[in-house]
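Many introductory courses stop at the sequence. We go one step further.
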Amino acid sequence: MEGLSPAEIIAILDLAEDYVAQNRQIDKKQSLLRGRTQINLFFESSTRTRTSFELAGKRLGADVINMSVATSAIKKGETLIDTAMTLNAMHPDVLVVRHPDSGAVNLLSRKVDGSVINAGDGSHEHPTQALLDALTIRRRLGRLNGLTVAICGDIMHSRVARSNILLLNTMGARVRVIAPPTLLPVEVERLGVEVHHDMRSGLADCDIVMMLRLQTERMKGAFVPSIREYFHFYGLDRDKLACARPDALVMHPGPMNRGIEIDPDVADDIHRSVIREQVEMGVAVRMAVLDLLSRHLSNRPVALAQ
C-alpha cells in the first residue's frame, strides 16, 4: 500500500466493484487473462488468500499453478534467488507470493520479468487484504474519509494492520490501535495512529472495529500472560462492542480464533459482522489487481498510471 495515491486506491476499488457484480452471476468467467500463466508461490500456509487468488486468476481465464513449497527444491536448500531465476526461465506472467520474511517479495520482483503480487511478506505488508477491507467498508458505509477505525490485537506481528493503517490514513480515515504494550511495535505513533491500551476507551465512538488474530507462531517469548486473560482484556465481546457506535461494523481478516480475540456471538452477528463479506470482496479485489497488471503486460493503458 505504501506509495499508492488516493486516486490509485479508488481506481482499484471501483474496478473491483465491477467484479463483485460479475462474481454474483451464473457465468463468472472471462477470457481477459487467456494465455497468461499465474503461479501462486506460498512459502507460508494459507487457505483464504491462496484460494482467493486462484479463483481470481481462473475467473479471468488464466492458467493457474499452485506450487507446493513443501515438496519443492527450496526445501532441498535452493536459495530464493535461484528459485526466482528458475521460475523466470519458465516465463510466468504473474507470480503471487507469500513469504515469512519481510522484503522477500520485493526481492523476487527484481529478479523476474513478469508481475509480482505481494500476498503477505513477514510482518511488513498484506496489500490486497487492506484493499478488500476498504472495499467492504466503502460498500457498507459509502466512504472511507472521516471514519474512525479501531484496529485491535496483535499489532506488532500483523502485516494486515500495517497495510490497513497505510491505506486508511491515505484515504482520510482516523485510525486507532488497541493492544497491550507488548503487542505494539516500537514508536507505533509514527505510523499516524492513536494508541490505546484499553478496549473500552479505544472503541469509543468507532465506526469500524477490526480485530486481529493473535499470531503465536511469530512470537518468541511470552507476549501475553495467558489466553484467558488476553480475551478478558482484549477479546471483542458484546460488552466492549457497546462502547463503539451502535451501527459499528466488526471485521476480522481470518482465520478467527473464537474465544481468544473475538466472541462467537459477535463474530456471527449478521447485523454487525462483515467477516463473510470480506472473503467475498477478496476475490473481486484480486481480480481487479490481476486485471490491471494484465494491461501492463499487454501494453494496454493502466488505470493506475500517473
